[in-house]
Amino acid sequence: MIERTLSIIKPDAVERNLIGQIINIFEKNNIVIRAIKRVKLNKKDAENFYSVHKDRPFFNDLCQYMSSSDVVVMVLEGENAVLKNRELMGATNPKDAAKGTIRNLFALSLDKNSVHGSDSKENANIEIKFFFKDLAN
Ligand code: CMP
Fold first, then answer.
1. Which is catalytic among the residues 116, 117, 127, 128?
2. Pair type for strands 2-9 and 71-79
């Protein structure tokens, strides 16, 4: 089924000029970049976006980091895009990420893990609406 999901290229990857290399991985895997923008989140934006994690001990550091410099937000579209994006990203902690995945290739640490991707179709809709009002599934 053709789906849409939200992807964020995080500050560590934007700062290292990896936007093109990351998009290339998506495109080589038949994912279409349906929408894209480079934005600087403020702390409140990051807190709202990551509100599912609000009770986790890493919440404050995560929101601080995600609002520290520019990120690139994208709507990815393709066959089973939610799951496919998660496979292409690799595990959250780069130490556990499979060879050739985005996080294996580029991530620096659990926090500076280069990309975010929606973890379910339901969350994809919520996350897409956050940045691109008209494009939810
Ligand atoms: P992301 O997919 O953006 O979702 C939440 C982020 O929190 C996650 O990637 C990690 O970068 C960050 N994070 C920091 N500590 C943890 C942790 N212990 N477990 C999960 N995510 C964490």
1. 116
2. antiparallel
Sign of CA dihedral 1, 10, 74, 133: positive
Question: Which residues surround ligand 1 with Cβ inside 6 Å?
Answer: 53, 58, 62, 92, 110-111, 113, 116
Mean pLDDT calculated for residue range 57-69: 98
pLDDT, position 136: 75
- Single-letter amino acid code for the residue at 117: G
pLDDT tens-digit series, residues 15-42: 999 999 999 999 999 999 999 999 999 9
Ligand 1 centroid to residue 92 C-alpha, Å: 6
State the distance from the centre of ligand 1 to the C-alpha of 58, rounded, in angstroms.
7
Q: Within 13 A of 95's CA, how many CA atoms are on the CB side?
A: 3
The reply to whether 116 belongs to the active site is yes
